[in-house]
């Protein structure tokens, strides 16, 4: 069974909105086109949502039951988890990080409407000889997509990158959390992302 945004896919769909939660539409051979409002943040989650629709369709689950299951799901495991903290919106994506997931997270931040954006990014692990290059490419992408944002870089690998816009660097998540407590943001959209070993959720706990 195929799924995707291509009209030739047996289960196909497209993104309607991601401001901040994803709304999408999907259809299949025996299911007319219809919309689903989710509680998930990030346009990059569209393929995951269509995969879920395809799995339900394959096993003969009623379309409304598929829609209800997807719309009622609320992330709570620091994977694209969106929370309101005071006047701030916080995207917790601390379960894992790699160059491709960093890229789509940054691109998603660029698309989301917010006057003040803060990116708190921790080192990506297990990249071998490509580590230095990949971390610099992440920083370059921030400068290209969201140059007006405040950037907080955490870890030894990000410490060696060069970024010419508004940024601060810390050795670990605990130090970044202390900075966050002393510089409490207001009315900001904040992305916190890094490899599991960086324990970036500590920074999220500092945002009240």
What does this molecule look like?
With 208 residues, the chain is of the alpha/beta class. It is 34% helix and 30% strand. It is built from 7 helices and 10 strands. It has a 6-stranded mixed sheet with strand order 5-6-10-7-8-9. A 4-stranded mixed sheet has the order 1-2-3-4. A hairpin with a 2-residue loop joins strand 2 and strand 3. Helix 1 runs antiparallel to helix 2 and helix 3 runs parallel beside helix 4. It is elongated.
Topology:
Blueprint (H helix, E strand, L loop, with lengths): L2 E2 L6 E8 L2 E8 L2 E11 L4 H13 L4 H10 L8 E5 L2 E6 L5 H13 L4 E7 L8 H15 L4 E5 L1 H4 L7 E4 L2 H10 L5 E6 L7 H5 L3
Parallel strand pairs: 1-2, 6-10, 7-8, 7-10, 8-9
Antiparallel strand pairs: 2-3, 3-4, 5-6
What does this entry show, briefly?
Helix content is about 35%, strand content about 30%. It has about 210 residues and is α/β, with parallel strands linked by helices. Helix 1 runs antiparallel to helix 2.
